[in-house]
Design a protein that fits this description.
alpha/beta, single chain, two-stranded antiparallel ribbon, eight-stranded mixed β-sheet
C-alpha cells in the first residue's frame, strides 16, 4: 500500500517500482538503499531481490510491481504523492510500457498530485514524447553539484505542468544555474552516519537565486546523523514554498 510520508515536501509515497543503481555522487549514501536492506531483513516481499553489489545492494534490485499500479485509485482523499521514493521511474531497466502504465494511472486519478523525481534526465527527455502529461504531474530532476546542472536543461524540454529541481543532498555549489522554466527548488543536506556536510553558502546561493527568479523555494533540512539532526532553519526561518498546492492539513 501507499504510505503516509515523513518527507517534508510531500504527503504520501507510491512505489510501483523499487530498487535502483548508483548513477552519480549523490547516490553514494542513498537512504533508500539502506532502508531496502532493513526491509529485506524484515521479510518485506518487495525487497527480496538483491541488486548488483557494485552499484546496488541487498533488496535493491530494480523491480516493477504490477500489483502496485492501482493503489492511488483506492485513496478517497486527494494526496500529494511522491512517486518512487524507493526507486527511479526512468531507470534504464524500467520498460517504457510500464512507465506509460504509471502515467496512465496518474492521468486517471486527477484528484491526486504526483511528484516524479529522476537522476536519469537523458532518458526522461527521450521518452517524454511517448508519455501522457496530465496537469497533476510535477516532474523533477536531482542536481547535487554544478556538474549535474545539465539535468535542468533536459527537464526544460519536458511538457510537465510543474518542473522542479531537488538539490538534495546538496554536495557543492550549484552556481549560476538557469532557472527559466523551473517552478520549484528543494534544497537539503545529506543525512546518515557518513553524511557529507552542506555549506550554508551553497543553500543561500540557491535560495537567493530562487527569490530573484520568482521560483518557489523549499529548504528541507541541514542533515546530520539523522535527517532532523540539524533542523530546518535557514537564516532565522523555515522555507516551505510549494508550487500552487494546498497541503491536506490546510484543506
Amino acid at each position: 500500500m501507499g504510505q503516509q510520508s515523513q518527507i517534508e515536501w510531500t504527503e504520501s509515497t507510491w512505489n510501483p517500482t523499487t530498487g535502483c543503481d548508483r548513477t552519480s555522487q549523490g547516490c553514494d549514501n542513498c537512504y533508500a538503499l539502506t532502508l531496502a536492506r532493513r526491509l529485506k531483513a524484515m521479510g518485506v516481499t518487495k525487497y527480496q531481490e538483491d541488486g548488483d553489489p557494485r552499484t546496488s545492494g541487498p533488496g535493491f534490485r530494480l523491480t516493477t510491481h504490477e500489483n502496485s499500479l492501482d493503489i492511488p485509485k483506492t485513496w478517497k482523499q486527494p494526496r500529494l504523492v511522491f512517486v518512487n521514493s524507493m526507486s527511479d521511474l526512468f531507470h534504464e531497466d524500467v520498460p517504457i510500457e510500464f512507465i506509460q502504465d504509471v502515467f496512465d494511472v496518474m492521468t486517471e486519478t486527477p484528484q491526486h498530485t504526483y511528484q516524479v523525481l529522476t537522476k536519469r534526465s537523458k532518458r526522461l527527455t527521450k521518452l517524454a514524447p511517448q508519455l501522457s502529461w496530465p496537469h497533476n504531474v510535477w516532474m523533477g530532476v536531482s542536481i547535487e553539484t554544478a556538474r549535474y546542472g545539465f539535468r535542468a536543461d533536459h527537464l526544460r524540454t519536458v511538457p510537465s505542468n510543474v518542473r522542479f529541481i531537488s538539490a538534495e543532498p546538496l554536495l557543492g555549489p550549484i552556481g549560476p544555474i538557469n532557472l527559466d522554466g523551473i517552478d520549484w527548488v528543494i534544497v537539503g543536506g545529506e543525512s546518515g552516519p557518513d553524511c557529507r556536510p552542506m555549506n550554508i553558502n551553497w543553500g543561500r546561493e540557491l535560495r537567493d537565486h530562487c527569490l530573484t527568479s520568482g521560483v518557489k523555494f523549499f529548504f528541507k533540512q541541514w542533515g546530520g546523523r539523522t535527517p532532523k539532526a540539524g533542523g530546518r532553519i535557514l537564516d532565522g526561518r523555515t522555507w516551505d514554498d510549494l508550487p500552487n498546492y494546498t497541503p491536506a492539513k490546510q484543506r
